[in-house]
């Protein structure tokens, strides 16, 4: 009926809310780096990339709002990105659980990189962040930041996969 506002379908709403959550997670990561002074290590950067790509997949699914087999493509993409991000976060938690001194720093010292690595790779490595991957310098409710990324990646992945596999439009019809 013309003039009647359209309700968002459940899958579209879930995808757009999950996109907003991913944006908020990236926003907090940037806030913690800029204002709290928490420099990201390479594993932190990979987790940020994973959450950002997950957000892009949610946004694409929300805007595209596919029907038929397209829902499965988005469900698989969201599931794979969430799983990859969760695995990186789990690896980071493992590294943080090791006893101090049992693990070398995440990257070679700059002098070694400059000696054995092409300059463009050194610049790329330096721009991805600094710090020790085994260092725990932030906790909330007893969990370090990679623990929260792990939980969020799993929750977002489950929500995205279920919403896109069980897609129904506003009238309750399977789309």
Structure characteristics:
175 residues; Bromodomain-like; two-stranded antiparallel ribbon; 65% helix; disordered C terminus
Describe this structure in words.
By secondary structure, the protein is mostly helical. The protein has a single domain (10-99, 107-165), classed as Up-down Bundle (Bromodomain-like). Helices cover 65% and strands 2% of the residues. It contains six helices and two strands, in the order αααααββα. It has helices at residues 10-34, 42-64, 69-97, 110-116, 119-127, 145-165, and strands at 139-140, 143-144. The protein has a two-stranded antiparallel sheet with strand order 1-2. The chain is elongated, with a radius of gyration of 20 Å. The two termini are 20 Å apart.
SSE topology sketch:
Layout: H1 10-34, H2 42-64, H3 69-97, H4 110-116, H5 119-127, E1 139-140, E2 143-144, H6 145-165
Give a short synopsis of this structure:
The chain has a two-stranded antiparallel ribbon.
| CATH topology category name | Bromodomain-like
Q: Share of helix among residues?
A: 55-70%
Radius of gyration based on Cα positions: 20 Å
Termini separation (Å)? 20 Å
β-strand number: 2
Main-sheet strand order equals 1-2
List the uncertain runs.
Answer: 126-131, 169-175
């Amino acid at each position: 009926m013309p003039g009647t506002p359209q309700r968002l379908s459940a899958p579209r709403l879930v995808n757009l809310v999950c996109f907003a959550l991913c944006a908020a997670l990236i926003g907090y990561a940037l806030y913690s780096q800029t204002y709290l002074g928490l420099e990201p290590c390479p594993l932190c950067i990979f987790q940020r990339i994973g959450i950002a790509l997950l957000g892009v997949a949610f946004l694409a699914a929300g805007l595209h709002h596919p029907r038929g087999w397209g829902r499965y493509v988005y469900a698989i993409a969201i599931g794979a990105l969430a799983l990859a991000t969760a695995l990186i976060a789990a690896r980071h938690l493992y590294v943080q659980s090791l006893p101090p001194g049992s693990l070398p720093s995440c990257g070679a010292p700059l002098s070694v990189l400059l000696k054995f690595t092409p300059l463009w790779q050194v610049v790329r490595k330096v721009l991805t962040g600094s710090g020790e991957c085994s260092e725990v310098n932030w906790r909330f409710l007893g969990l370090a930041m990679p623990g929260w990324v792990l939980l969020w990646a799993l929750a977002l992945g489950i929500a995205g996969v279920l919403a896109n596999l069980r897609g129904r439009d506003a009238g309750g019809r399977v789309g």
